[in-house]
Amino acid sequence: MNKINNKIIKDYLAGKVNDKEMEQLAKWLELSEENSKRVFGEELIYHIGKPNPLATQEKISKAEEKLFNKIAKEETKEHHLNLRNIIKYAAIFLIVLMVGGGMFTYLHRSKEYITVAAQDNIQHITLPDNSVVWLNKGASISYNKDFDGDERRVNIKGEALFKVTKNPEKPFIVSSNGATARVLGTTFNFNEHGKNGNEEISLIEGRLEVTGLNHEGKVILHPNQKATINKNSKSIQTKKEYTPVEAAWRDNMVPFENLNIIQIAQIIEQLYDVNVTVDSSLNNQKTYSGVIKKSSDIRTVLNGLAFTISFKYTIEGKKIILSAP
What we know:
seven-stranded mixed sheet, alpha+beta, Phage tail protein beta-alpha-beta fold
């Protein structure tokens, strides 16, 4: 197909092209660079479907003028172009090319992405599918404003807590530079900057597939499991952990339910980066429920727990020993 009906070009610019005509136009553009130049007027703005970020407004205006002149000359007397009606579409179209780029997925409808960043405060966001995200300080996410397509994809920098709306037909995917988490409906914490520079993903509820993007492999997480993507060893390690602690930054409160003294000690270790030893003199069969305020200092927390659980403690640097009173 060496020629194309000028009406298809005109309809395309006016946003009226149908699927069959779009397919014809796409095939025709792929035949040669000259064809794309003819439609888009200027190689600087359009080159085989790729945007040129250096194009200026002056060049865009010249491209529009060249485009309309070319089409106008080729139109027959019976089919004059009404330039006034399509100028606004062409202007929008050229800007879309510069911003959206990409080869033919209906170029006149670029995907619009939204980026949200948390500066000094935790940011709460509701996504187009009603999933909820809490961004920790300094974190940011970007996503398609409509979540159109076969998946719901979010790109992340920093740390965020996700509570995902279930939709088995449309997987929810969170990606960073080093890992991807694929979910159907779940609550999990994604920390791009975990300990030792590794990426950490903790599952609170649901089921989660975690994939390392640098040949670290793939794992399936279950509730209260944490995956660490080790960049040095190129591996993914998983361990059992009370994962609500990982999301404590969201509201500075760590709830626990029906946990024994050993499990509570593990929470304290995670929160305050200490080593807690539970003496055998304490009853580790009895369970407790409550809340730890993360912003409280460790002595305040231990005093509060000791009042309920009845124990005494000693602190030596980062080592804490809990024993019977």
